Amino acid sequence: MNTVLQILNLAGSLGLFLYGMTLMSESLQKVAGDGLRGFLASMTSNSFKRVLTGLFITAVIQSSSATTVMIVSFVNAGLLSLAQAIGVIMGANIGTTVTAWIISLLGFKADISILSIPLIAVGFILTMSKRQKRKNTGQMIIGFALLFLGLTFLKESVPDMRSNPETLEFLQSFTGWGFWSILIFVGIGTLMTIILQSSSATMALTLVMVNFGWIPFEMAAALVLGENIGTTITANLAAAVGNVSAKRTALAHTFFNIIGVIWALLLFRPFLRLIAGIVTGMGAADPFIPIAEATDSQAASTSMLYSVSLLHTLFNITNTLLLVGFTPLLVKIVTYVIKAPKEEEKFRLKFIQAGLLSTAELSLDQAKQEIIHFGNIVTRQYSFVRNALVQPDDDEFDSLFKKVSYYEEVTDRIEFEIAEYLNQIGEEEISSESGSRIQAMYKIIGEMESMGDSGYNLARILQRKKLNKITFDEQMTKNVLGMFDLLDKAFEVMLSNLKAGYKKLNNIENAYDAEKDINKYRDMLREGNLLNLGKSTYDYLTGVYFMDLIAECERVGDYIINVSESVMEIKS
Questions:
Q1: DSSP tag of 468
Q2: Domains, in order of start, for the chain
Q3: Residue 508, SS3?
Q4: Of 100, 374, 457, 549, which sits with the fewest C-beta atoms within 10 Å of its C-beta?
Q5: Which helix (H) or strand (E) holds 434?
């Protein structure tokens, strides 16, 4: 009965640690917000900056898994190239070692649980604030407190080796098989990290085990190497439903860590001796001496903790220094392994395939990229309508008409899928600002779907015109093309405003100017049409088709200005 209770206590303590880690990570991402994403976008121009970026972000949000999933999503969204992503992931591997040092320096040296309860009180007070940033800060503090509370419970729930020597004997039975034992512990570390979905949690367990003398330094080192393989599973899961670039990024992460583990295993003894030399050189005990045999068990325990943390850090730094120069080669390898399909479907979702990210704010950024992609698709549809206007060949016209019709179906489908994604985000706990963004996005995708319908209506008008043998003279064709030129300019302004977003967009005078130009041109052509009908320049039916095209184009201009207005509505 006691054994079952101890196992349940251990599982509960680990669960509390993981929950604290997740809460702290997600809250930090919310607090950092656009600054974090802007930093990521601006700091990837060279290898050094990429590594530094990954290191900084992971050290801040305390989760390499969250960083790598974010990177995979950004590659999927086309915001980062494969080479840029690999550099950031290398830095993330170094950044994740910060967690081990925090635990080693604080988790076992002081009773952090004494501060945990007051910190939860402070965090709770902040979560009562109406300001979203304070709420997120409060959640971050609570997450930090729960993390160390979980670690304290984890230490207390570990069985006492003196009263339960059979546990130690069980573990030590795996340590006497030489190099095979090392490989077994690498496998255990990999499996534990895959199951827990957190290398930080596995590292915490490893540090607890070495602190209490459960496993020797060599086996702890093997567990750490295994954790570096297991942590890649999160990125691979995120990329499973992503595009080819996302899958390549996740595979590059796996290759990078596996290559590191291979050289570390080949140089295992010398590498561990180097770590021991550094630690003993700083005045600590030799980590190779088991805690049970040490004259000062407290000093031996401290030495083990520092040695494991130093190994974790030195391994990741060395691996990055060795492989960062081979990033182009790594890109070629993963590109060769994961080949792009010969004909990728043109009009699938590009940016939100991988599902929701860890926070609503990051997910909304993905939705924004998808909406910009939606705008590009609509713009392309109108290029086919323009070509159909001047296409004399019937077969070519029919081909263009089918493309326009297909694009109309695509706009319907994309509107629905983006709306479904926004619904999922709306179900999460979101700020009022995020709520405003979601409402604006609903309006925008609705307007874009209407543009798709209008594009099809324009093609139908041209089709009926052709069936009724109606022809436009050179001037009429030139006038309609002039209207399409104004629409192209309006589309360009719309996409520019969408990309700028509500934070950078101070006004939409450019959109209003584009709409005014369309309306003025429509009025001018309407007056000209009446004059030409009075002069019998062309017959009445030809004038009807002409004005139907112009009126539909003017309607599209209204949809376009509505998009920019929706972006500005978020500010208010």
A1: T
A2: 2-337 (no CATH), 360-569 (1.20.58.220)
A3: coil
A4: 457
A5: helix 432-467
* 171 residue type, one letter: L
Lowest mean pLDDT across 36-50, 114-128, 320-334, 356-370: 36-50
Q: In Å, what is the CA distance from 450 to each residue of 29, 120, 243, 560?
A: 35, 50, 28, 10
HSE value, Cβ hemisphere, 13 Å, CA-based, for 401: 19
Whole-number Å distance between alpha carbons of 287 and 265: 18
Model-wide pTM > 0.70:
no
End-to-end CA, the chain: 61
Residue 179 has a CB neighbour count (10 Å cut-off) of: 11
Q: How many CB atoms lie within 10 A of CB 477?
A: 14
In which residue are the tokens 């360009």 written? 492
Question: Which residue in this structure is represented by tokens 């034992």?
Answer: 181
Closest to 225 (Cα-Cα) out of 172, 263, 278: 263
Of 168, 152, 204, the residue nearest 290 (C-alpha): 168
28 vs 290, more confident: 290
- H helix runs in 212-243, sequence order: 217-230, 232-239
Q: How far apart are CA 3 and CA 339, in angstroms?
A: 51
Q: Which residue is listed with tokens 């801040």?
A: 60
- From residue 270, alpha-carbon distances to 245, 263, 276 in Å are 38, 11, 10
Phi, psi for 349 (deg, rounded to 5) = -65, 135
Q: What is the mean pLDDT of residues 35-41?
A: 57
For the chain, what is the mean pLDDT? 80
Q: Which two tokens stand for residue 39?
A: 């930093």
The DSSP letter of residue 429 is -
- Residue 161: pLDDT band (50, 70, 90) is very low
